[in-house]
Amino acid sequence: MKYYQSLIALSIMEKIISSIRNEALMLEGLFNGLDELTWKAETSFKSWSPEIILSHLLYFDRMTIYSLNDLDKFNEEATFLFKTFASETNSLTRAQIVKDRLLIDSRSSMIAEWKASNQEMTNIFFNVEPDQRCQWFGPDMSARMFMVARYMETWSHSQAIYELLDEPRHYTDDIEHIVDIGVKTFKWSFRNRKLDVPEIIPYIELISPTGETWSFNEINNEESIIGLASDFCHVVTQNRNIKDTELEVNGKISEHWMSIAQCFAGEPEDPPEQGERN
């Protein structure tokens, strides 16, 4: 039984890590195609440049490694982050301070360091049990959810690069990880804003990029969200305003949730205004 459970556990981590590596390859292609001006240009995500976005991904991939392999370093960097966030409230300023912390000046060096850290992170977590607890800034997380969160953040931040380049995005069924975390953070989205959590949980029916149907919760004709999985992912990661998607949202609870949905940890964030990112 223990051997059988280990095989199942390995397949779970293998699937998530494969998705991270797939996304990293696509993002690497985007970054390699940027010239120096575009590398430092403002994107539609809080005016972060591609340079800032990649430094952010690199820094937190490294923090993920430290959480397992070097707790002293993790705690040192966590102290730095808490002090930075306490003294600075502007998202871009915070991100700039994190970038400067890396002491990497050139585009090629930043890309190379990110590739190396992302590969190291996925290699380490490939052999970690999915239920193993990992230290983070708030409550600790399972290794599985840790990797889902890294995939989600990489996928989410990539969108700003696609928008900057006005390049269409090819979606894959890897986004099932984001759908899953988006569904599971229904209650969190309300609690994080100190709002009462609705007793009724909306029914969700989504079409995957390959045409599969993904459904969640009990069928409810009065409270439901139906449409493309990619649209749902953009909403819960706050890349899109719900009104800029083709999701069919029925019911006041569903409408409220989609207006504040947040599948990532941290302070409450607001989605972009209608028409701001599409």
What report would you give on this structure?
This protein has 278 residues and is an alpha+beta fold. The protein folds into two domains: 10-166, Four Helix Bundle (Hemerythrin (Met), subunit A) (Up-down Bundle); 176-260, Nonspecific Lipid-transfer Protein, Chain A (2-Layer Sandwich), CATH 3.30.1050. Helices cover 57% and strands 8% of the residues. The chain contains eleven helices and six strands. The strands form two sheets. It has a four-stranded mixed sheet with strand order 4-3-5-6. A two-stranded antiparallel sheet has the order 1-2. The longest helix is centred in the first third of the chain and has 31 residues, at 2-32.
Task: Considering the chains and any ligands shown, give keywords for the structure.
6 strands; four-stranded mixed beta sheet; 278 residues; alpha+beta; two-stranded antiparallel ribbon; disordered N terminus; Four Helix Bundle (Hemerythrin (Met), subunit A)
List the helices and strands and how they pair.
Elements: H1 2-32, H2 36-39, H3 50-69, H4 71-87, H5 91-102, H6 107-126, E1 133-134, E2 141-142, H7 143-165, H8 176-184, H9 186-191, E3 203-207, E4 213-216, E5 224-228, H10 229-236, E6 248-250, H11 252-260
Parallel strand pairs: 3-5
Antiparallel strand pairs: 1-2, 3-4, 5-6
